[in-house]
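Give me structure tokens for this 119-residue protein.
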Amino acid sequence: MDPLELFRKKLQTYSRIANKEGEKKAWDSLYKGYPERQRKLLGSFFKPGETLAQSFAKGIPMYKKNGMDMDVVDISNNDRDAVLEIQRVCLILKHNLHKKYGVKDPCRVICQMDMDATE
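Here you go.
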């Protein structure tokens, strides 16, 4: 599915619930089951013996195909495997999707939710 369409649906749903029942309820509703879905989606990129940076880098072509500009930086240190995923283009801000749905903090709804679920 087109990432813009996914973002639209997520922001629209968040806005609808937040307006009726508050932001906590909106967050909780969207977050329910999200870590499991993230695990399923991201799990296919991870292979034994690869670093996180190698695994994350596999997603670059997919992001590029969808109009995003992603880079991966290996920040492993002291025997701890770690990576930074850098998105140089935010499609939500680029297309002002958050304004259409009245979402003041799209980074919390999209990026923070992804980070929390990925943890």
